[in-house]
Amino acid sequence: xxxxxxxxxxxxxxxxxxxxxxxxxxxxxxxxxxxxxxxxxxxxxxxxxxxxxxxxxxxxxxxxxxxxxxxxxxxxxxxxxxxxxxxxxxxxxxxxxxxxxxxxxxxxxxxxxxxxxxxxxxxxxxxxxxxxxxxxxxxxxxxxxxxxxxxxxxxxxxxxxxxxxxxxxxxxxxxxxxxxxxxxxxxxxxxxxxxxxxxxxxxxxxxxxxxxxxxxxxxxxxxxxxxxxxxxxxxxxxxxxxxxxxxxxxxxxxxxxxxxxxxxxxxxxxxxxxxxxxxxxxxxxxxxxxxxxxxxxxxxxxxxxxxxxxxxxxxxxxxxxxxxxxxxxxxxxxxxxxxxxxxxxxxx
Length: 348
Fold this sequence. Notes:
By secondary structure, the protein is of the alpha/beta class. The protein has two domains: 3-121, 2-Layer Sandwich (Ribosomal Protein S8, Chain: A, domain 1); 125-337, Rossmann fold, CATH 3.40.50.300. The chain contains 13 helices and twelve strands. The protein has helices at 3-13, 36-43, 48-57, 74-92, 99-111, 117-121, 139-150, 164-177, 204-222, 225-234, 265-272, 299-306, 327-347, and strands at residues 21-25, 28-32, 60-64, 67-71, 125-127, 132-134, 153-157, 183-188, 237-241, 253-257, 280-285, 313-317. Strand 5 and strand 6 (132-134) form a beta hairpin. Helix 11 (265-272) packs across helix 12 (299-306). The longest helix is centred in the C-terminal third of the chain and has 21 residues, at 327-347.
């Protein structure tokens, strides 16, 4: 029995309410949907969602009334059917699907055919300040959010664009607005990457501000500028270089250490031992992009070895598959990783 026939038998035995039914035809896989409006949302404006799937899987998708016909390789057709069926179910739950979500769904289900898009896309972080809803876009992002909820110290390691800092910021803002914590502390090491701090204009605060700009950008994406400024003025949100953490005890705080690959081992130990009662710490970084002087060990890399087995500390590893920026970013990261591996092999 083919995979397609097994899918038909399974669907006939265990039908789900309002779930599209799949029918096989020679060379074509047909999906029938019950609600025309939901199907229109699934297809997207001028069928742009279907075009994303066609380009990704090299299949052809036809639309007729409440039916989608998928033609192409059997395996790719089954994957397209899985993506469309699950996205339909997500839209039924009033989740607005965009072309980027279709791309994320394709990446998720091509890596894990058993993944459940409802579990991922419908796990929301609600920002009451501007009624903003933020959702994970990959299996690892979902695991990351769960780790933050259930652990007091979470390390998020992986390439740029995977949402490490953004999701941590979203969780922090949501928790502070719910008064689960008294304040958010955002910090990162001010490592000189090609330019000397002393040659930058202004006082100390103005000199380190460029290093903290990404944290401000993420903050202003969660909360409007005026409210963010009030929270900063009152100390509800504090943004500071890592060096300013020395000697402090951070109680009832949601603390985010960004760009942790640029910490020294001494700085990482100092930061981890600042955590006080009722606090949570999220440490994010990419160990492949260290700006430390040559020969200097990264505190993030060393922490992986030293504290990984401590109960209450969780490590979440992202990869290029979790990149949620422009699609080319994922290809760029993959290309650089391939070049580095090739260089290492030629040197050995």
